[in-house]
Task: structure prediction
Amino acid sequence: MLTISNRGQQMPPSPIRKLVPFAEAAKKKGIKVYHLNIGQPDIETPPAILDAVRHADLKVLEYSHSAGNESYRRKLVQYYKKVGIDVSYDQILITTGGSEAIMFGFFTCLNPGDEVIIPEPFYANYNGFACAAGVNVVPITSTIETGFALPPIEDFEKVITPKSKAIIICSPNNPTGYLYSRREMEALKDICIKHNLYLFSDEAYREFCYPPEDGRGAGEYVSAMHLEGLDQNVVLMDTISKRYSACGARIGALVTKNKAVYDAAMKFAQARLSPPGLAQILGEAAIDLPDNYFDAPKAEYMARRDLLVQRLNAMPGVFCPNPGGAFYAIAKLPIDDADKFCQWLLEDFSYKDQTVMLAPATGFYGTPGLGKNEVRLAYVLNLGAIDHAMDCLEKALEVYPGKTITSQVNSSSLTS
Amino acid sequence: MLTISNRGQQMPPSPIRKLVPFAEAAKKKGIKVYHLNIGQPDIETPPAILDAVRHADLKVLEYSHSAGNESYRRKLVQYYKKVGIDVSYDQILITTGGSEAIMFGFFTCLNPGDEVIIPEPFYANYNGFACAAGVNVVPITSTIETGFALPPIEDFEKVITPKSKAIIICSPNNPTGYLYSRREMEALKDICIKHNLYLFSDEAYREFCYPPEDGRGAGEYVSAMHLEGLDQNVVLMDTISKRYSACGARIGALVTKNKAVYDAAMKFAQARLSPPGLAQILGEAAIDLPDNYFDAPKAEYMARRDLLVQRLNAMPGVFCPNPGGAFYAIAKLPIDDADKFCQWLLEDFSYKDQTVMLAPATGFYGTPGLGKNEVRLAYVLNLGAIDHAMDCLEKALEVYPGKTITSQVNSSSLTS
Result:
């Protein structure tokens, strides 16, 4: 009999996309669905970079260099310099989205059976690439009570074995929005050096760091590449998807000063010939955007974050730590089961013919059973839409059959 | 110590690209290099499909569906119908080039340690994807004397083990240009059914099938999907790279009627989110090209083939079978070592300040030692350039220190 491979069977389906059929059914019933479930921003792709593709003088759309066009890599050197990362063009490998950078990192650095340590909750697709590479994911739990800060280093020490080869971090984080402090980054550096671990640093949301709600701290972005003495350990995984709201371009980069890693990753890059050509033109043009380009989207995301977090925390029994970056937040809800609740929102609930689509947090944890009363919200819609979505959620929590608090009274009135 | 993974170490470097530094050095010396070494055609990408991208009404370059835009997949159904392949849109998964289709096939259908049987010489990057997937390549030798026809089925039977899971074919073939006949395709079908093997069919060059030089036979293209009763076994790996001279687009497709394979491949597709967005617009527009679009490039390639093969066979000690399709030919040369010769052409030879870059055939064989006096020539340059390149090759064979024939006399004059 023809069989599917073990990894093909074990490969996890996307936890975010599994609710899509229920959303489609809701829309067919005439219900408007606010999509806070996926990281697809509504921010316009800068027209100037789309125009660069429109006006490109192309006769033959040829393969590019397997590492990407040299002109693009040389311009990226300037970009990285602006964010305090000093690399040369031959330390940059252009990839098909950040996804391929992650995949190349796994294939280049880890053997089947090796372990990668990831603070959870984490970007669910790390599971997929680990499965493809035959690598085991070892989660270290961060908690909503600390706002998803880096778990204590002792927790890492406890799980490190001879099979441990890498730690993956994502800061600012998807799905939590947490931004690692310099102190936390230094702690990660120490453990990577002590145990000879690669540090895979997913920095897709670099541009979106916000001052904390309470005004304390600077919202300082610290790249793994800012850490002195860690050059050989760091594999930076980057993408233009979120930076320029160009998710569909599929342009990312693997950046490393470790020449052996670069050279091996390059062989995987050669096998797939080249990254997308049209989108490299777009990526290269993005380096010429004015320095203040990010001011507007960043201010927009911050206003959305403030509204979202304020609305969530005003709901009885809801807790949402204030995220320091990216455009995600995880909220704890007074519900029995996030998967059931998110499906119920689409299948059985509407408020003024509207509902909201959220991502159950269970899909972001590696440890079974965690995240059952948590959801991830992506604040990728405008303020008006977020407000309407929060109206829906507020009403939904009042009537959801699986709610775990009975009082409808606002917590502030309880203490008055 | 930080280490590179075993597969990262074992991953073969591109056999085609390893001569690039020598070509660059030659160019720096002022020598014109005719690139017959890579399958990058000089045929213009149809302006209409580039215009479709230029005029696309895009505000946000969003993720597409992980299987590719539904509108594109629905149009591809029409395209496949025209080439006699009857599939529905949900049996088509748009991939990042044919490369990703090959990779998804390996990951979905084969376990580490499983074996894939490939008639050699074969497209060298199959080795790379096999290495990434931990799969062992078992070559079956086809020979230049038969024009690289399908080896006898007994040769397949001899190597089949319980670990054998798939056969890969590419017809018309890269690197040989051989076009499998219906009889050969039926023989492959029989063995796949008998031994429960997947048939991975790389049909990148479908549009370029030529009548044989002697006028016998029709140059009939037979797809694996034309074979009755093989639906569950066939995984078609396709690309628009060569069809529309759009190698840099990175748009391909995995097509299969085996739902379990499709569903498992879809999970790998979800992990990488979506195929390139801009290039899907280009791919979709290509379906609307007039039916006679292929007439001109096909006639052009045929004229090039005729010139190339005629020139090669007129050189003393050279033999080049006439390829039935694609835009490659393999020639046997009177030389000691193809790798040395190809490097020597770039490093130590020029004729009227020109030389030619060829691909040593050794990189296309899985069996060590084979192909040592063979080179692959890609007829991707115009007739004038091919003629000049053949002048260079002819002169080079006269003076190459490692030549294996001493007479400069033309073979036709020997028999007169």
